[in-house]
């Protein structure tokens, strides 16, 4: 059996503000170590539960944060960018399940360092369903018939996952106090929890259904300002709402919608606030 792990950074225990998740900041190397350690706890537990191959996709920022020389020796790592499918690069129908570690809640919601892809996104939707990184990535897994077995992060992230996917296992390694503070488990206690929850998720995998995406989905992104929408609207096939920073894209399937989202958010980052 093969297991797919997408590992973000904001949802790792002890990581509560930008100094831990920005490579230019003083706590970043601490964040890398904690991120890699959490991944290793899940990898080790999954191997013990019978998985034979585990692929880890570094899913934060420039996607080169996991310390490969500290990673479990039997895991394989997808590192770096540009990756056509970003946080779910390499995921396909050969996997028996997926797990998302270090994840955070979507833009506009409570939760530690909550956002959706870039800080200029206010809301994102697939058809009328509000969606964040967690949900969008789960839809891609569902496109391939792969169930999302576990999500690890703060309590708000766990609630978001449980609302989307009945029966999913969640591992809460910290509880948000504000967007930049949390009540955190120690790394040792978080490791114990992650190993136990990984075991639980694998034992429960037959009770979790893939999150099936809609056919011909409409992607809608509401940006923070109109300049961002103008940049995103340069992509062929998009339409901008009149007098609103909202851009729509009619996709053939969820994979095309995902690629469109990557292009639109990358373009939107070209806008400035002054």
Automatic annotation (TrEMBL):
Active-site residues from the entry: 115 (nucleophile)
Molecular function in Gene Ontology: aminopeptidase activity; metal ion binding
Residues reported to bind Zn(2+) 2: 8, 60, 104, 133
Cross-referenced InterPro entries: DppA_N, Peptidase_M55, Peptidase_M55_sf
Signal peptide: none
Keyword terms of this UniProt record: Aminopeptidase, Hydrolase, Metal-binding, Protease, Zinc
Listed Pfam families: Peptidase_M55
Residues binding Zn(2+) 1, per UniProt: 8, 10
Name of this protein: D-aminopeptidase
Protein's gene: dppA
């Amino acid at each position: 059996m093969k297991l797919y792990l997408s590992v973000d950074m904001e949802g790792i225990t002890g990581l509560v503000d930008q100094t831990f998740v920005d490579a230019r900041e003083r706590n970043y190397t601490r964040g890398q170590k904690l991120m890699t350690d959490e991944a290793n706890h899940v990898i080790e537990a999954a191997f013990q539960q019978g998985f034979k191959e585990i692929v880890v996709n570094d899913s934060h920022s420039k996607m080169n944060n996991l310390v490969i020389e500290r990673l479990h020796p039997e895991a394989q790592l997808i590192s770096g960018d540009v990756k056509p499918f970003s946080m779910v690069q390499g995921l396909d129908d050969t996997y028996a399940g997926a797990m998302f570690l270090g994840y955070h809640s979507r833009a506009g919601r409570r939760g530690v360092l909550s956002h959706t892809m870039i800080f200029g996104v206010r809301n994102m939707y697939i058809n009328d369903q509000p969606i964040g990184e967690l949900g969008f990535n789960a839809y891609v897994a569902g496109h391939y018939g792969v169930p999302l077995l576990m999500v690890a992060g703060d309590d708000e992230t766990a609630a978001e996952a449980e609302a989307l996917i009945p029966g999913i296992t969640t591992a809460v390694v910290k509880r948000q106090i504000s967007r930049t503070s949390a009540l955190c488990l120690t790394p040792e206690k978080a490791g114990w929890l992650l190993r136990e929850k990984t075991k639980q998720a694998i034992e429960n995998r037959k009770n979790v259904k893939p999150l099936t995406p809609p056919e011909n989905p409409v992607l809608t992104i509401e940006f923070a300002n109109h300049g961002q929408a103008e940049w995103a609207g340069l992509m062929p096939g998009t339409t901008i709402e009149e007098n609103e920073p909202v851009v729509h894209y009619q996709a053939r399937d969820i994979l095309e919608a995902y690629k469109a989202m990557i292009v639109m958010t990358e373009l939107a980052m070209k806008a400035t606030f002054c």
